[in-house]
Amino acid sequence: MEFKQLILLGPPGIGVKEQAQALSTHWHIPHVSMGQLIRDAIAKGSAVGLEAHPYVQAGELVPDNLVMKLLRRRFEQPDVMLQGWVLDGFPRTLDQAQSLNELLLKVGQPVAKVAELKAMTGLLIDRLSAQAGPEIPISAIRRRLTHHRQEITPLLEYYRQQQQLTTINASLSFAEITQALFELFQTETGAARFIRDESELNSLLANESLLVVDCMASWCGSCKLVTPLIDQLADAYKDRANVMKIDFDANQQVPKRFGLKGMPAVMFFKGGELVETLTGVKPYQAYSAAVTRFLK
Predict the structure, then answer these.
(1) Mean pLDDT of 85-94
(2) Where are the domains of the chain?
(3) What phi, psi does 246 have (nearest 5°)?
């Protein structure tokens, strides 16, 4: 069985815990919930639980050293070490994220994939309002979501820099979100491979006479329509042009650099210069015609 390690991040009302449980069941790997680890430690009256209890009662974050102790102990258990895990409720701070990566490297494990579940604010407000009832004002829910965004932004930036982050469109149905998460661990079989980062892109621009780059994202439904066409293009022109993909979420500076107005966006570079961009879903013939034109 493929070894999987996945961190799920997302705002209140988006269903992080439920998705973690669904993935755990489907993959037959442990679901590690930091909230549950803390509750169990308090219920057992362990040393860590006794220290954590006052923070939980006060509604404050449990200190990093305590949650790392709990996580380290859970990760030392055979099921996690041998099968992998899906983690929710952690990390909550940048220090926690860095400590987790350090822990994994120390025990000889690769760093985990990180999935951010992202949805429209209005949708989250509707869900949280329905759960809370009329006694909780919309303004309080909005403040809660704003606070979460401020809290999570440094984490997202860190994981983006580490090339661990993928953003999932959580405005979709539960099943569609779960499927997108499944796909994070599917082996890439397409003919067009991914450009890792802007440094690799710069190297390709300096060395390739004709480079085609599909700027896409896992949460973009239209991108999924273009992906097989780009793979077909890569296969058809493999001896005459280099056709590749680049992940928007891991390389957000690239769309800004080339002035992209939407996704999917397929860029055509000749001699290192951007000569054309096709935005949106086009028929295969449009991509093929562009390559043929620039090969002349």
Answers:
(1) 95
(2) 4-185, 194-295
(3) -140, 135
